[in-house]
Amino acid sequence: xxxxxxxxxxxxxxxxxxxxxxxxxxxxxxxxxxxxxxxxxxxxxxxxxxxxxxxxxxxxxxxxxxxxxxxxxxxxxxxxxxxxxxxxxxxxxxxxxxxxxxxxxxxxxxxxxxxxxxxxxxxxxxxxxxxxxxxxxxxxxxxxxxxxxxxxxxxxxxxxxxxxxxxxxxxxxxxxxxxxxxxxxxxxxxxxxxxxxxxxxxxxxxxxxxxxxxxxxxxxxxxxxxxxxxxxxxxxxxxxxxxxxxxxxxxxxxxxxxxxxxxxxxxxxxxxxxxxxxxxxxxxxxxxxxxxxxxxxxxxxxxxxxxxxxxxxxxxxxxxxxxxxxxxxxxxxxxxxxxxxxxxxxxxxxx
Length: 351
Known about the structure:
Number of helices: 10
Largest sheet: 2 strands, antiparallel
Radius of gyration: 64 Å
Strand content: under 5%
Distance between the termini: 147 Å
Oligomer: single chain
Structural class: mainly alpha
Number of strands: 2
Order of helices and strands: HHHHHHHHEEHH
Helix content: over 70%
């Protein structure tokens, strides 16, 4: 019935049975709606794996539609939603496997109990009385053997020991439980085994056809798919984690290299700036030294000039003064006769 309804939905649409008024408020289902089965979209739906088996989960409560699945596969958001849907499917499958593993453990315990030997049945009153008499006889004979051995009667002691051995054999036969060989053989032939994949009980030495039928059955194949998917999902997750770890380590290494480059660049700029600063400082020092030297030269030049000027001024004044005095003397003595005579005393020049 469900298969026929799904076929009609695929051919005529899910709104085939709605009236015109109902269709006005009807919204077409999309693949990303909550009522659509995400398990069916991405891989497989576990509800479809165990139909008509002992592990039947019943009908899936969500919508399965091949058109929606095709729309999902063609959607540009397909790659973004696949990890999410696969994680949900893996979580559901892990719950199934956990429940199955509990059943497998209980099955192992059951088989272990069946393989243990059954406790012996209690002896009847008659056999218990016979057993007590035999044990008393054996005890008395052992005491006699000990007495004879101490007396040195070895032959008589050996004869009593043979009687003790016979009584022990009779005691063992009395306590041994009878077994049916046919029942033992049947139990060995019908020895059970447990399937570790799906948890089903099998006959250990069953025919190959029945074993093959179990392996190709829905329950075995379904749980095999579930277990394979979980293993594949975990491997892909671990691989992605390792790749992310490698990428993170590579990114950290690249950042470290970039920081080293930036540090080296800053160091070089700092060294260059320091060299420029020291060079400018040396230039300033040299300039200041040259200015100081210029000032010294200027002061020395000004001092020499003033001394030379003072010496010239003194020389000039002394020469002019001597001439004036000579003229005055000449003029006072004989102005007419000595006007052209030069004084015998010439002025002394100061150098």
